[in-house]
Design goal:
Number of strands: 9
Largest sheet: 4 strands, antiparallel
Structural class: alpha+beta
Strand order of the largest sheet: 3-2-6-9
Helix content: 10-25%
Strand content: 15-25%
Length: 150
């Protein structure tokens, strides 16, 4: 797919994370969190894409952080890029197909793509499109895509 619903509105300069549905759910929370995102990375050697569900904290209007658990595929990819002296491209997809979101939480073996698993569960492939700001494929029907480097 070359053009997708997730690319209808592009904001790459003048934007604020606080324009998006990023909530502070409880008064004692440390801040605003993206609570059910697909965090997409790619293995630098195998080139497999990985989608995990990792909450993100919106630190300010332009920066967010996630807490990659050491055993998750995204953390494995991050360490591989670091060993190569490179930074990791990351896309964060917010909203979209519930089966694709669920698949990011499934305990799949390393290098089994979550979008492939979601397609298996749905009975048809998940439509993806190349992100505009990073070299990753993202779900075409996600509501919001954030792209960056960590």
């Amino acid at each position: 797919m070359k053009k997708a619903p997730c690319q209808e509105i592009i904001k790459d300069k003048d934007f604020s994370l606080f324009e998006y549905p990023i909530l502070q759910c409880w008064p004692g929370d440390a801040g605003r969190f993206i609570t059910l995102p697909l965090v997409i990375t790619r293995d630098p050697e195998e080139r497999q894409t990985e989608s995990g569900n990792v909450p993100h904290a919106a630190l300010d209007e332009k920066d967010d952080r996630n807490a990659l658990h050491t055993h998750h595929d995204g953390a494995v990819n991050f360490r591989k890029y670091a060993k190569l002296g490179k930074r990791t491209e990351v896309a964060v997809a917010i909203g979209g197909d519930p089966v694709t979101i669920f698949s990011a939480t499934a305990p799949l073996p390393y290098n089994i793509e979550e979008t492939l698993f979601a397609g298996f569960l749905r009975g048809k492939a998940v439509e993806v499109v190349k992100a505009r700001t990073v070299d990753l494929l993202v779900p075409a029907h996600a509501e919001i895509i954030l792209g960056g480097i960590c």
